[in-house]
Amino acid sequence: MSSSVNRGGTNSAAESQSSAEQPIRPAATVILVREAATSYEIFMLKRTSSAVFASGMYVFPGGKVDADDHHLEYDAHCFGPSKDQDLQVASLGEDGRGFWIAAIRETFEEAGLMLAYNNQGELVSFAEETVQQRFSAYRDPLHDGQMTLLDICQKEELKLAVDHVHYYNRFVTPLGRPRRFDTCFFIAGAPESQRGSHDEQETVDSTWITPQEALARHAAKEFDLMTVTRMQLEALAQYPDKAALLNMAVNNQHFPVSRPVLPPGA
């Protein structure tokens, strides 16, 4: 997997100084979309109330980038990034491999959706119950560190569908928060035969929902969201259907990096 050098901007001096006390953890999140009767739906998970970060809130599948996600061995088990993703590669920079691998790993670990091609070059299908059960059995060992995504790729002869997962934008948690993340958001179409499910460890509920419904339920205080998640949903709600959203993701040429600043006393 090739990469470039521009990571989309550097930290300010104040941010760099504070990061010694509040380390910024790299993270990756995937907005998964599927067809729906009215427009399209996205997959969201409710984090357990005992979670240290975003407890009880609905989020997109994702998590921090692990050291293992940067291993060169993954290159032999990736399809992509494609030539059409050159701008995404350039914007992600030298850490691109880690973000892409983390995005796909966390999507499977947290949501049970495997974004990969089988040895016949087709997106992994869970249409057969035996296949779904076999892959489901990998989730706990992956979560517990007893196996890696690379182990699963080798065992199942998979090519991770990097060409199917499109870098969208990036948010850096503001100074003053006890936990800070440099999170890259990706957009991907969900494989049609895969439905997804929460892991019953870090997440306790899951749902396919339109951005409009998620925002309406949040306004009614029924669907807790972090500010960054709400902002993403507001942007997603502008697209009329799955095709329009994925067309934007594929052809996007601008990858904004948001570095919000907390108001005094927040």
- Calculate Rg over CA atoms: 18 Å
Overall geometric form: globular
The description of the largest β-sheet is: 8 strands, mixed
Element order: H for helix, E for strand: HEEEEHHEHHHEEEEHHHE
Helical content stands at: 25-40%
Structural class comes to alpha+beta
Work out the number of β strands: 10
User: Given the structure, what is the number of helices?
Assistant: 9
CATH topology description: Nucleoside Triphosphate Pyrophosphohydrolase
Mean pLDDT: 88
The number of domains: 1
Superfamily (CATH H level) name: Nucleoside Triphosphate Pyrophosphohydrolase
Poorly predicted spans: 2-20
The CATH C-level class name: Alpha Beta
The fraction of residues assigned to DSSP E strands is 15-25%
**What is the distance, rounded to the nearest whole angstrom, between the alpha carbons of the first and last residues?**
41 Å
* Gross CATH architecture: Alpha-Beta Complex
Can you walk through the features of this model?
With 266 residues, this protein is of the alpha+beta class. It has a single domain (22-252), classed as Nucleoside Triphosphate Pyrophosphohydrolase (Alpha-Beta Complex). Helix content is 30%, strand content 21%. It contains nine helices and ten strands. Strands 1, 2, 3, 4, 7, 8, 9 and 10 form an eight-stranded mixed sheet that branches. β1 (24-35) and β2 form a beta hairpin. The protein is globular. The model is unreliable at 2-20 (pLDDT under 50).
